[in-house]
What we know:
The chain contains 12 helices and 15 strands. With 438 residues, the protein is an alpha/beta fold. It has a domain at 108-319: Aspartate Aminotransferase, domain 2, CATH 3.40.640. The strands form 4 sheets. A 7-stranded mixed sheet has the order 2-8-7-6-5-3-4. The relative contact order is 0.14.
Amino acid sequence: MGLVSLRNFFVLSLALNVSLILRAINQNEKLHSGALMAVEKGAKVAQMTFLSFPSLSSPSAAAPETQTPLGRERVVNLDHGDPTMYEQYWKPMGDKTTIVIPGWQSMSYFSDVTNLCWFMEPEFAKQIVRIHKVVGNAVTEGRHIVVGTGSSQLLLAALYALSPQDSSNPISVVSAAPYYSSYPLMTDCVKSGIHKWAGDAKIFDKDEPYIELVTSPNNPDGFVRHPMVNRTGGILVHDLAYYWPQYTPISTPADNDLSLFTVSKSTGHAGLRIGWALVKDVEVAKRMIKFIELNTIGVSKDSQLRAAKVLEVVSDSCEQAGGSEYTESFFHFSHTVMTERWRLLREAVKRSGLFSLPNFSPAHCNFFDNNLGTQPAFAWLKCDKDNVEDCESFLRGHKILTRGGKHFGVGSKYVRISMLDREQTYNLFIERLSQIRS
């Protein structure tokens, strides 16, 4: 009897354990199923959120966004100059700009100890000289090339290099309004004590040394700029980020003491964070290099190598355009896109009747060997509606985000609009602007 009872006890125990195990498995499956449903639901919500913002939208949407309720409600963000327009050119190029960097490469701080700019990759310097020769937009002979993490770091390096180190007062930094909105913030960011923002160059009247930032073509209005102050004791920094054939006629090679360039707006590779300066004075170049050394101990070699490859492909496309490998040059493609975008914008502005845009006189472009107009990377739009004083707020009410004139040192009737976003975003902007009526 005892043996039987013990056997029955084991059987009952085993049955209970099996029952508990099956219940646990069943609950786990329900939880897993619920989790999958939650993930799928979350993914759909995330996708909706993702598509709601133009700066993050997918360029490969199955249908035009303007045909969906989501597209109609979408906020068009053209406040910044993110050059995603250029994806149209680079995606079909395949592996032409692909590079492979082995794990052992680019490990040292030093790139070329024989070069004044010791952290600059020789191949990048070579391609900079080549692209300027191909385009004809800058003199490189007799210049020292300084590489920086975008032209923003190079501007700060230039201000550091050009400011008197032993003066009791900071040197004034000016630029003609409308000026690039980041100039005041960058100049006064660290309150260095050696330079300070002094505003509009057109009204600067102090009898003292100054640094004038000359942006040409200008950001935001697109006009070719020349120095405004023209007094003794002045030092010039030329920001030529937009002096490329897709934006403006290349009339002559820039021959300045200090010029700044960047791959961001020349080729569209803003994410590389690579720019360069062409500097005539060796001592100024040395001080700029010292600033970058103290600031970031040089510049990413990987970015330089990739930028060198991109510039090489651009130059190849210009020299071999019309062949089997390059049907058209990068700048021909970019110029065509910009021409069409400005045509659409001017038509939309005309239909609306509430806005106006600058007019640019044609000029001979040596690169294209033709008389061409200017088609800037940004549109400088003015709201002519009488009862609208703040154009930025007015357009925001129509789900169009721009940057208002107050950031550029002028009135709030003006806004800056990026012309460089993806095609879907730009077309939605044109459609929406055309529908605004008085």
